[in-house]
Design a protein that fits this description.
The protein has 13 helices and 11 strands. By secondary structure, it is α/β, with parallel strands linked by helices. The strands form 3 sheets. Strands 3-2-1-4-5-6-9 form a 7-stranded parallel β-sheet, with helices on both faces. The relative contact order is 0.13. The protein binds NADP nicotinamide-adenine-dinucleotide phosphate.
Length: 290
């Protein structure tokens, strides 16, 4: 029985992955790390081994990774800190003798440091490099933007306001849902033949925010328009409305990246791996905005 360990198990993606893994593997073969293990009490009751560890503390990772065969390494959420944190995880995995690391990376068209998405892509590129150089078997999952980020960019009150305001131009995104990616990861973690492979995890169709406005208009029966200002106008408008600068910058980074086609990557790999259609963006929007 292979021992599978999950990082980021208390997060959105990690919870879904744990649920899919429990359908495919005995609970006793699964373990998860958490900064606060009590968040995983319900999984512990089902037999999952839960260990306290922090990406900041390499020794805690090294201890937790003992006797683990396969690591599902979910990328860290602290963009400022994750260079160091990811280095700790890769080093600890190598030292603990883990056989294979399945890493949730980032889909992109360009790896240029001039790209608008360079501030978030840099750690993923570096982590892929560390994994490839580490001598560990690796599987890189290049995640598309989650469908779940659409409400963050389009705003939860878009139906009421009637407008999507984002500097993303006519750029398109091949969104896929977290749940589909988590289920495909569970498949990879419980089947063989994925060593030293890289998979594109995206939807088969790309959508612009104009397309999303049209879908939301059709769903709600209201007129929803899409306005794409320049990055400068966007910053001025949102800071005038009291939106924190850090939040504005994230929207600008992703908006500009989308405009440049960084996330326009339709691909059948995810559907082929799941053996079914992925959740269409239209269905996702219906569940969120119904
Ligand atoms: P999430 O819900 O924010 O979960 C992040 C997870 O990382 C949580 O379990 C959190 O644990 C854990 N974590 C953070 N810092 C840690 C530390 N120092 N030590 C140990 N654990 C730590 O994120 P998600 O939605 O599941 O997404 C998973 C990852 O995908 C994110 O972390 C991010 O890298 C990336 N992402 C991708 C997209 C996309 O559209 N493709 C969008 C957002 C994020 P705690 O419970 O202790 O906080």
């Amino acid at each position: 029985m292979k021992k599978i360990m999950i990082t980021g198990a208390t997060g959105n993606l990690g919870q879904l992955a744990l649920q899919f893994l429990l359908q495919k593997a005995p609970a006793a073969s699964l373990s998860a790390i958490a900064r606060d293990p009590s968040k995983l009490d319900s999984y512990k009751k089902q037999g999952v081994h839960v260990i306290r560890a922090d990406y900041e503390d390499k020794e805690s990772l090294l201890k937790a990774f003992q006797s683990v065969d396969l690591l599902y390494f979910i990328s860290g959420s602290d963009v400022e800190r994750r260079y160091q944190q990811h280095q700790h995880i890769v080093d600890a995995a190598r030292q603990a003798g883990i056989k294979q690391v399945v890493y949730t990376s980032f889909q992109r068209k360009s790896e240029s440091t001039d790209s608008p998405i360079a501030p978030v892509a840099g750690t993923h590129l570096q982590t892929e490099k560390w994994l490839k150089e580490s001598g560990l078997s690796y599987t890189i999952l290049k995640h598309a933007l989650y469908s779940e980020v659409i409400p963050m960019f389009a705003r939860p009150d878009v139906i009421e306001k009637g407008v999507i305001y984002l500097p993303a131009g006519g750029g398109k995104v091949s969104f896929a849902s977290r749940s589909d990616m988590a289920q495909a990861a569970a498949h990879i973690l419980t089947t063989s033949g994925h060593e030293n492979k890289t998979y594109e995890f995206s939807g088969p169709v790309s959508y612009s925010f104009g397309d999303i406005a049209k879908i939301l208009g059709d769903l709600s029966g209201k007129r929803i328009i899409y306005v794409s200002p320049s990055a400068e106008e966007f910053r001025n408008t949102l800071s005038g409305a009291g939106v924190p600068a850090a939040v504005i910058e994230v929207a600008v980074i992703f908006g500009e990246g989308i405009k440049q086609g960084e996330f326009d990557f339709p691909d059948p790999t995810l559907e082929n791996m799941l053996g079914r259609k992925v959740q269409p963006v239209e269905n996702f929007l219906k569940t969120v905005y119904a």
